[in-house]
Fold each of these.
Amino acid sequence: MKEKLKYIFPTLLLIITVSVLSGCTSLISQINEQASKSIPATTKANSAPAPSSSSQSQIAVNESPSTVDEETSPINFEYVLMLDISSEENIALAKYDLDIEIDGRKITTLSNGANYKNSVPINDGTHTITFTSNKNASINSTEHFTTTGDAHISCSLKSRTAKIDIKDFNCTSGNEVIPSPETTPDIPIDTPTIPEQPTAPPTIPNPPTITPEPASPTVEETLPPSPPQPAVPSEYISALADAYDYSSLMHMSKKGIYDQLTSEYGEGYSTEAAQYAIDHAQIDYNNNALKSAATYVETMHMSKRGVYEQLVSEYGEQFTPSEAQFAIDNLNADYNKAALESAKSYKNLFDMSSSEIFDQLTSEYGDKFTAAEAQYAIDNLK
């Protein structure tokens, strides 16, 4: 009996173990099947492991949400773009920092006159780099470039009052693919090629020969071809744009604009570029002289003669005598009021007497008002 039980118990134990394992396997299959039915497709898509935060080749950027997931997904960057960008120091009218963006991603803010050398991640394809004034977003310039692998961009920037000049823009890519030349398929040597014999065309009788009369040359045929026009250098175009800026913002004369364009303390253009700007700028210098004259009367309370001499002076505005005379003739100024304002300044600042003020207003070395204008000022001085 004991011998029988010795073989029965192991057999029962084996049967029970198999049954339990079979039941667990069936239960796990039912749970997995039920879970797969209850989990939506978007959850499966999001079950992939998140990228490591230490990876330098992955940067999250703001993109439009996909149809699969409402959240923004990180972009996996494969290559490196080296940036070597310099900003020219501007000491004239436009001095502001520049925001640099690539494909809508802000890279940095470049200070006026500073250099920027750094690397950013990028993928193959066509990209856009944008330079924008951090003071006025409407002032910007854009360049497009294409990369295949690691790349390098170099350029220099110059800020203007109404635009940003991009000079010497260059993009090189390290993995550019050069297509191989097409090869002609080999022809077996032992297989001679026999060209097909063309079928002779049917014989057609020759028509009678008609000699056309020579046509008269048209006007276009008699004129010699126009020579190709040389391209205008970018420096000339920039100088022309700056000439318009100085005219519209500061109402300068032709000589004043030329000096500002060529000055080492101004724009520093070559004399050729500045002369091109002066020759091609459509500027009304009479109107500039008139606006400058109005400013001198309103802000500095100058007399008619004082304004004229300031407009034509080589140390002043450097307008021509005819342009200055146009301004004086068309300026609707109240010189009595200007004399009175000057008289108030002399009294308050220097505590001058009425006779001293009168002498200063009419002096050749003073304000050069007329005697009547000076007397008006004295009579109304309080």
Note: The chain is about 40% helix and 20% strand.
Amino acid sequence: MKNFIHLKGVGKNFGDFVAVDDVDLTVAQGELFCILGGSGCGKTTLLRMLAGFEIPTTGTIEIDGVDITQQPPYDRPVNMMFQSFALFPHMSVARNIAYGLRKEGVTKPEISKRVDAMLELVQLADFGKRKPEQLSGGQRQRVALARALIKRPKVLLLDEPLAALDKKLRERTQFELINIQYELGITFIVVTHDQEEAMTLATRIAVMDKGRFQQVGTPKEVYEFPSNKFVANFIGTINTFDGIVTKVLDDQIEVYSDEAGTSLRALGKQLVEVSQKIEIAVRPEKIFISKEKPKDSDDVCIQGTVDDLGYLGNRSLYRIRLESGKIVQVSSQNRRRSITRFLEWEDNVWISWRASSAVILLD
């Protein structure tokens, strides 16, 4: 895939407030790219600059080799799908979808042909004559998507597109959105605060905080190899241990942690030095829990007590209190059917993980 969208040194100030701070980004043609971040991080401002609703204070924006930084929205090869869907309540589904084509003066036969094709694509072929109020939330979302796509933009911008849907409908619609994007081959840029949504939808994710990209990568790269403490804590759940580097080996480092009460190991891609203070982090699902001490001497093993637990159906969550008072969260898959618990409160247990499961976190 060729590089299609280029942001070079893009920034946006509102008075003294810096909303977007010197952002560089390249997005490939046909990519489904997600900008992920919390409220106020600058993600929607960045999307509005791509749409032309805001003009950058600094930097340039290019799409398909053309500088569009100063172009008005109606001259850009982009369309935007808003969080509220913004459907016209007095118009039928078909007329809502056709609105943009009618404004451009496209002929009626061509409009009819393209509307029918869009209704088929979003699986609403039998709903063209209905009004938006007669549709479910998921169906209205698909009408808004069809209306945004019918003008055949080079880029579709989606601002929290699934936020108005309930959890199960949102999960189902995510895959529908992926299939539509794959079938059309249009570049999608999605803004969301929902981590699971970004992980499910995206070919790549940009994690944003305070107007800057903290990390850009595939969902697996961002989750398994966070670049810093912010990304590690923002994406999913993670356990961290403060420590001091005691050994730097060829393939891993060793860190002594008072919180853990023992030495921890991690694969060390970063350049660290003996006596340096760092954090070692490990995800809850990477940790094994047992009543007996594991026999594998290569694993990190720590003894603790079950402080709290929760049953979530497919998995159980345990909060293990170490001798130092440190709480470690462990997620364990419930592979067997049972009405009795594997562990109870105050049980003495061992938690363990492989060195390859831990990551080094630097500022």
Note: The radius of gyration is 25 Å.
Amino acid sequence: MKVSQTQYSVYILTNYSKTVLYIGVTNNSEQRLVEHYLEKENPLSNAFTSLYNVIYLIYYEDYDYVNDAIAREKEIKKWRREKKDKLINTTNPQREFLNKELIGEWPPKEMGHRKSN
């Protein structure tokens, strides 16, 4: 069996006041956070994360295989808010923003673009 070299993440973002949740999946967490930030900074963006200022990472899970990550994302999206809150509390009960922990600086100074493989 071939082991995947890419790691996939299911992540949950929120807004500054922690009232909105967004669940997504990515193979490049750092870059995806920057992209969400750029969407927010674009006045023409109609993206959900832009409209609701949802750019703060509060939870993530890593997977070796994209199918596992996508299945988990779909599972979490079906949950009620209470169950999502309990999941977040398992690793981040204080609801601290994890952007800086993941990227090293927030907001990001260098606004790169997604690199194609």
Note: The mean pLDDT is 88.
